[in-house]
Design goal:
The structure is a homodimer. By secondary structure, the first copy, chain A, is mainly alpha-helical. Chain A has 10 helices and no strands. In chain A, helix 1 (about 1-30) crosses helix 4 (about 60-80) and helix 2 (about 40-45) packs across helix 3 (about 50-55). Chain A binds a DNA duplex (30 and 30 nucleotides) through helix 1, helix 2 and helix 3.
Chain lengths: ~210, ~210
Amino acid sequence: MARYQSSRVVDKKSQKRCAIIEAAIETFANKGFHRTKISDIAKHAGVADGTVYLYFENKDDLLIKSFDELISGKLEELRQLTDKEDTYVNRLIKFFDYHVTLFTAKPYIARFMAIELRQSSEFYQKYPDYQPIKRYLTYLQELIEEAKKEGNLRDVDTVALSYIMFGTMDFALTEWATRNQPFDLLPMKERIVDIVRNGMYAVKKED
Amino acid sequence: MARYQSSRVVDKKSQKRCAIIEAAIETFANKGFHRTKISDIAKHAGVADGTVYLYFENKDDLLIKSFDELISGKLEELRQLTDKEDTYVNRLIKFFDYHVTLFTAKPYIARFMAIELRQSSEFYQKYPDYQPIKRYLTYLQELIEEAKKEGNLRDVDTVALSYIMFGTMDFALTEWATRNQPFDLLPMKERIVDIVRNGMYAVKKED
DNA sequence: TGACATTCTGAATCAAAATTCATTTTCTAA
DNA sequence: TTAGAAAATGAATTTTGATTCAGAATGTCA
């Protein structure tokens, strides 16, 4: 009985924490970190201002923790999705697909990831453990290595290709999200994938 | 004589204005827009806080003007440099070269461009004319169009390729700048260019 | 040189919002 | 049921930093 109740308490606690994090992500994404007031988030989450400080040290901490949970969740989803693909090259392509789907459904997440991800170098120095994209890059690089072993990729530089893939996706999605969806994501993705696959040179073309 | 003196005055004025802009760029780059105090910039520029307001309406205005001058200057330099190349494909490659050189010399400019560009999405709504990267992208897209006409590029999508080029460069340089130069820029650039030129595929696939 | 204009200064003002904490509400367990 | 613990509240406090402006410094020119 004690056990049950105690776990119920934990549940409730984490529920409140969770509500705050969700509200934080959405509000940060919509208004930007600095324009978001703690009271905005509190209202959104249905708690009092002070309650936020029971779960998070301060506003910076809230940003970091929110991001961390967001990334963890998304990376997990991404892994599950890509694991289904037969070849590693296809998993790499799936990386794009996943984000297109995700951001089409929730553009504010695109904005959050693309914009709030970038903090000043001072911020990074203050919180050296805050390396939000690193896990993403690492995962990408693992896929690339495997795809090379598999023989479907030529011997390109792993880091360079991961930068191309991540950087392009990130930039295209930022443009798309901050400019109010000025183009269709899906065909754009196809065109980008085509270039990354086959290169831009005319000479290689054989038709 | 009066003419001479008056122009000397203008000179002096623009010198002070210039000092403020330079200090602004460097400080915004290091700390981010919102964490930068006007007093930081003033101190850096060697003027009083109030002086800043003689040259700029407010903090927003200062950011916009700083960015504008930075971009204009750099774009001008870039144009002059690329104009020397014989083919448009080579001009495209030069686009990378230029930024590698620029950012190696002044990493904080890389940070400013990459970070403030993003953080300032909030400015897009408030100041619709503030579209700092647009001119860059437009220039890139012009080069791509010409290169296609020239026959050195296959018929790739212009916007897609511009996103790949700009996004990759932007991301790689941001990584490089915020992580304290963890790799050599020049070889990294070569590896990236190789992939963008020739694609990542081991075997040319037809699908 | 001296009257006037221009430029600069930085302390004082003011607003916004992060954070705290005395109080209230809710929960726990005997 | 109830005393005590834990969690939550939100008004009050504090911090922060943009902006102003009265006065000082400097420049102009007859």
